[in-house]
Protein: Uroporphyrinogen decarboxylase (URO-D) domain-containing protein
Organism: Candidatus Merdivicinus excrementipullorum
Amino acid sequence: MNDIQILRKLAAEYFEASQSEANDKRRVLHRAVNDLKMIRPVVLIEEIPFHELNVDGSLTLQCEDETFRGVEDFLRKKLFHWKHFPGDMILTPYFPVYKGYTSTGIGVSVHEETLATDANNGIVAHEYEDQLATEEDVAKLHTPVLSYDEEGTIARFNKIANAIGDVLPVKIVGHNSYITMWDQISSLRGVTPLLIDLAERPEFSHKIIEKFTEIEISISEQMEKLGLYEANPIDIHSTSALNSALPGKLDGGPVKRSQIWGRGMAQIFASVSKSMHEEFDIDYMKKVMEPFGLVYYGCCEPLDRKIDIVEKLPHLRKIGVTPWADVDAATEIIGKKYVVANKPNPASVASGVLDEDALRKEIGRTIAACKRNGCSCDIVLKDISSASYRLENLVRWEQIAMELVNNW
């Protein structure tokens, strides 16, 4: 088969799955969670190490054209996911062509050394060289200028649509928000100098985060004006995004921030005090998040003892509850006010043979805590650095999680 024949076969399989009753039912479950009217917890598996899972060759790319290989990769991974460990995943009834854009940059860039233990794994260890060590370094920071590559986007759309559009609709789509100021700063500085300066040079640290706040506000304003945001995403950073409040009425113009989710986090603040977390992130994040319709905050940083400061964010709807958080304490405070975005420990699938008893205990504790406190919840296995090259670990994880939530 040639490239187009390969893609058309995969596209037909994908479209059939996207039209299934299961896909429709899952949309109802997703929306109920984010509307704080949960039917049962939603289970998702994301950030998957596909390079470890190609047991039958179905993930092996066969196309030669670079653009078509990207389409093929998307379709093969989605179909593999759907077949082996779907949980409550949703498939869009179209192939997405993301709007391309460029940025002039913020004045500094990451300098690093990396170390890999698996040459096939894109997740590696990083040692960063501090690029923001002095006042002079910070002065280099500036807001970038974004430009929408409409010509390139339309060219990609036409090429893909001509190949598969009569089998699977092709749609130009925008992007989600993703505000990670301290993640960016940690990549530009390294963890140690960043944390030391929070304590020893607080005014200097404030100057850095003030600059990044200006940068992120400018980026989000430009994204809005250029029409680069997506009105109807099915997910927001690996969790369900569907809800009844957004996007509201669309007028055909650029999607506004008030019509989409704002996504924020400060993962490097896992080890700082609540007062410091509020002073150096929440107080600034409030300014960035104000224009957005709904807000999802928190990633790998435990927030169970910081819910009261997170609640100060405008339009808050969803809070991340990491494996390192006390789920009982977090859900007691969150209650019916916000969605619990629970992240079970991905080490469970990375440690050789899956410990099923431990997994049942972990997810069972989350479900019991949410039921006890009336929480709406999605349960998302993500940050999966490895599944020990054992597809069965992910298959069994999904089966157990679905068994538990279906007994809700």
